[in-house]
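#lab-general

N.A. 3:47 PM
ok so I finally got the sequence cleaned up, no stray characters, all 394 residues accounted for. can someone with queue access submit it? mine expired

B.Y. 3:52 PM
send it over

N.A. 3:53 PM
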Amino acid sequence: MVFLESSGGILKTLGNLAEQTGFAKLGWGNILMILVAFIFLYLAIGKGFEPLLLVPISFGMLLVNMYPEIMYEKGQVLADGTVVESTGLLRYFFTLDEWGIMPSLIFMGVGAGTDFGPLIANPISFLLGAAAQLGIFVAYLLAIVFGFNGKAAAAISIIGGADGPTSIFLAGKLGQTNLMGPIAVAAYSYMSLVPIIQPPIMKLFTTDKERKVKMTQLRPVTKLEKILFPVIITVVVVLILPSTAPLIGMLMLGNLFRECGVVKQLTETASNALMYIVVILLGTSVGASTSAEAFLKADTLKIVALGLLAFGFGTMGGVLLGKLMCALTHGKINPLIGSAGVSAVPMAARVSQKVGSEYDPTNFLLMHAMGPNVAGVIGTAVAAGVFMAIYGVK
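B.Y. 4:20 PM
back already:
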């Protein structure tokens, strides 16, 4: 009897332990998302596709699908009626995403690490950056057709700018936190796949002759111009669209750190240590928002499809305006730099250089493409500000 009772106690204990393992709560959806996380890790580590973004995103995805509690919020009521007693670690990080803190800090780091000289030297790049926002507004209209409400459509459409931080920022401001995971993953995935997605579109809409156009060297930009630029852009844009202040303000503050020459320590911190810390926290928390329960829905597939369409139309818009400028200037502008008008900095500019060099190895388009690329960052933030203004969000 003692032996049986002892055996029964051991079996009960082992049964309780088994119920506490992750295997007991692992559903087919979790397994699928874990496989997706492995694919993202392979793309990041094996193929080198934006590893700084995809490694933390994929690891956050892996964690939440094995241990959902890491994203629980205190007071949250679960499907079985259980009330969550404590907040999970990555939920704290995700809250900073919802508040717009992480995206704004990313923008400051981007500003501190980017030379705006090519844009200042060739202001016509602003038009190419604006043309590449075509995808955002096409996706907005298509999202409404797909059944999303106006705010959700606006949040989804920003994927077309290939700008993860702005996508997260706008989704939070418009109260679309339930869609933030799919939107952010789609935006960052397309950012990492720029070298694969853009070249076929660029080649489709340009001729061999246009792809071989050589552009004259950009004029030197003075230090005074570089100092005044972020100040003037901030004043003009924020006065017109005050809601863009968190993004445009931080972007230009970071650039002012870089160009003023008297705060080297702040420049190094913003563009390196702080930037990488924020990327870790933002990437991991975004990945952790993709639990099977939240991610495996019909709306997710719609968002992924709309994001791809938006990105394609954005690339097309920049290239087509580049073709028009090439014709108007009698072959002085290479249309390939128009594709860099999406705000994946500096990846999109590198793709313009790569495609151009395939047709003429002596053609150097990188610095010319950086102008539209930087303009695209500003343009996407302005597009987000327009949507916030439309829906009365401050």
